[in-house]
Amino acid sequence: MTDRVKEEFEALVEVVSALRGPGGCPWDREQDHGSLRKYLIEECYEVVDAIDHGPPDKLAEELGDLLLQVLLHAQLASEQGQFDVADVCERIRKKLIRRHPHVFGEVEVAGVEDVLHNWEEIKSKEPGRQEITSAIGGVPKSLPALMRATEISKRAAKTGFEWPNIEGVFDKLQEETGELEQAIESGDRQRIKSEVGDLLFAVVNIARWSKVDSEEALREMLDRFQTRFTAIEERARTAGKSVGDLTIDEMDEIWNEAKKQEHRF
Q1: Of the CATH numbers 1.10.287.1080, 3.40.50.920, 3.30.300.20, 2.30.170.40, which one belongs to the domain with range 145-212?
Q2: Which of 35, 70, 95, 111 is 20 to 30 A from 119 in CA distance terms?
Q3: What is the pLDDT of residues 227-255, one digit of tens each?
């Protein structure tokens, strides 16, 4: 670690402490772990957006905003005599060393699969893990639904609760589609909601079998949708119309043109 890294990190910790201290910022002084929760989540998503779309400078900025949230929570805990930022750094440092015996110890691994297997074995023996009695326990309920579904699906599959091949997953998809159609015909909104959930989970399993991240796939699809729909809006404005003035065939033609432009790059 360079002297500059140490100096900048220490200076940032001091700034955060000053914001919370006497004569500091009234807004920062009013915050607690609960009130900061939403900002932590927002900053995480802004980092993801910068990874997907932003230049390096934007990513550096967003990582700084996220680091600020970590330091604010550590500062709050320090004021309450619970832990401080040094404890946070120490705990993650020791955890990384403990879970990487192939780097910091004598364990040898043949590849990524061995690393992941060892990671889970070590993790399962750590304090507090014994309290988790279910194979799918410990998955945070606050995760975005697709991410939570993927993790639950992976953990269940590791126990043997799994289809023998992807054809079985497609059969399940067709089954859930049929059940959703029946639910819609019944008009029972709660039943429809339940079947929509089952169908989405079946799609998550297809993504898992195909080694595709369902959250990332949907995020990228929404970007494509926005690009194509914006093209429709721009074409309508050029013609002095609103989107509603276009026929569905005209919209479809513009949509397909925008889609072709994407495949050129």
Answers
A1: 1.10.287.1080
A2: 70
A3: 999 999 999 999 999 999 999 999 999 99
